[in-house]
Each structure stands twice: as structure tokens, then as C-alpha cells.
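We include this case.
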Amino acid sequence: MKFAISLLGAKIEIVSKLFLYFPAIIFFIFFFNTGEAQTNISVLGEVVSKDDTCQKIDKYLTTLSKEKSLSGGLLIIKDGKKIFSKGYGFADKDKNIAFTSSTLVSMGSITKLFTATAIMKLYEHGKLSLTDNLKKYFPFITKDKEDITIHQLLTHSSGINDFAVDERGDYQKINATEFLTKTFHQPLFSAPGTKGVYTNVGMSILAMIVEKASGMDYEQFLRKELFLPLGIKHIGYQYPQEDSVVIAHAYKNETDWGTDQTYYKKAGGGPFWNMKGSSGLEASLEEMCLWENSFTNATLLHDSTIRKMFTPYIVEKESKGLSFFGYGCDIETSRRKTKVIDNGGGNGIYFARLVRYEDEGLVFYLVTNESSVPAEKLLPNVTQLYFNGKFLEDSFLKEEKKK
């Protein structure tokens, strides 16, 4: 009799708990067994300020994603506060995976800012001097290049030429010795320190100096000295790819091109020196917010070091005097006569722009993974909406008129 009563009591308790948790059970069944699961869950990581400006930008990007196949994400930071962080379109169309604020995607040549920061960290630690010449690190260097300094590499004023890569391009399997031999046996395009001409090769050489000065692999140094202190867990080349992350596929006019990791695998590893230090780091909107706020709050480098990085040193050739090179960045003046620190990158399919309006306390980071709506054309429209509430000149229409 006691056993029967005990059993009846247990049944009543189970039934009562089922009623208690019933709404939660229905929630999880609904969201994890329908095609709407991902879209709804991804919303949890989105930030769009309720002010009219951010709402207008969100409406514009949402329309582009529906009508023009925009795919990518936008981050806006104001005075260290994230006021906009949202993805649009897809990270992987075949798997119906949405692009969210936690999606990793290639930033292209914005990687150069990270390499410059690594150099400045070593500078603060007393491991190198900005006036160090290349002969100190590469004793076999040719005579015409031995006096090139770290400062000149950082400001694209070394005179070193980018060399032509083979059909494998960025993914060519090339070791440090082969890379340096090709670099050092090419003639300089100008005397060191006299002209500012953008170069990928110079930044890869700086990444090698990071390794020599620190005794660590380039990516290992970034992770230990730059990322972990900021709570950044996933920025990197992601080869091999971590199981826990989603990396956005690139789409060339809506056709799947794959990811950088696809091409590393084909090359038998990577990244190699055509890319390492100059391009290809993968990042999410969430972690780029942490990265950019380290400059705003001077939590990674001293304020004096940051000012040194963001100083205009030499005019960028063919910019008509409008753009100057800092350390791993371009420095310009806005329409409002305020200081702009600019970085951009892309491979013709992935595109990214990182723009810091220093005087106005603003940072914009825009990345796209669909070639037909690239970040380099889209960001001018976004910033016009932010500052003016309308387009003074639609960058897409401007491009069409050129054609």
C-alpha cells in the first residue's frame, strides 16, 4: 500500500514538473526543429540602437540584403559603446547559416594594422627600435636594402617592390627564405624614405621581425600578447579551423567561392608568406569591437604609442596629397575636417573597411562576403546616412555613371 502511494506521489510530481517546464520545452522544440531557429537565435547577439540614425542604416542594409544580395556585417562604436552590430545575408547559403555578429570573415589587408600593433608592442617591451635596419635581422640582405628601417616598413616608404606571385597567388607554398630571396633580389622602386607606396611584402617582412624579436610564431605572438589580454579568442588565420566557429563563405556574384581555409588545404597548409602578416586574418564583429576599444581606451598600448601609430608620416603616392601613411594605416581628413584613420582590405570577393573617426569618437567596421555589394562601395553610403541622414552622393550610382 505504501509503495502504491509512493508511486502515485512520484507520478503527480513528474506531471507537475512537466507543466512547470512545458513553455520552455515547447520553445526549444519550436526553435531547434524549424528553419527559423538560426535566424531567431542570431538576433540575440545583435545590437541596433533605437535612435533614428541607426534605424535608418538598418533599414537600408536590410533592403540591400533582400533586393541586391548584400551579405556581411556592420559594427559601429560610439565613444567606446557598441551602438550597431548586426549581420545580413548568409555565412553559408548551402547550409542556411545566417551571417551574424559572431561570424568570422576575412578582413584582408586590415591585418596590416595588427602587424603594426605587434611591432609597437615589441617596441614598448624594448625588444626592438623603430630605427633598427633590416641588416640587423637579415644578415644576408642585399646592399641596397640593408639600411631600410622598421619605421619605413611601417609607413610603406621602404622602396621595396611587391613581387609578382604565381597562379597560386596568396596561397602559394613559400617559406621565409624563398620569400626573402625573391624580395631582396628585386630592385627598389625608390630610395628608402622618399616615397609612400603601398606594399604587402613590407608587412610580411615586419611579421618575420615579430618572430625574430619575440622568439615566437607570428600568430602565436598575436594570440598571447594582443588577443588574450583583451578577451579575444578567435581572431586568427583559423587553419586548422576551430570546431566552435562559423567562417563565412565568399560569394562571387552569388556563386560560392569557398573560404581561405579551402585554399590553405589545397596548398598543403598555410598561411604562407605571401599572406602572413599582410592579409587574411579572420574576425567577427564582436571581437573587432574588443580590438578597436583597446585603442580607444589605451588598454593594450600606451596612449603615446597609439599616437605614434596614428601620426601621418608620408604622403601616399597618387593620393593627390589627401592621404598619408601612419603605422599600418592610412590617415585622411573627413568632409567635416576631422581626422580619419582608415584601413581596407579584400581579395575581389571578400571586402572589409575599418574607419576610425578619432575626433568624433566613432569607429565603423564593415565586412562583406558577396562581391556584388562590396564594403568599399557600401561604407561611404553608411557613413553618409550616419552623419547626414541621407546620401549626398550614392557610391553605387557614382560607379554606374563611370561605366
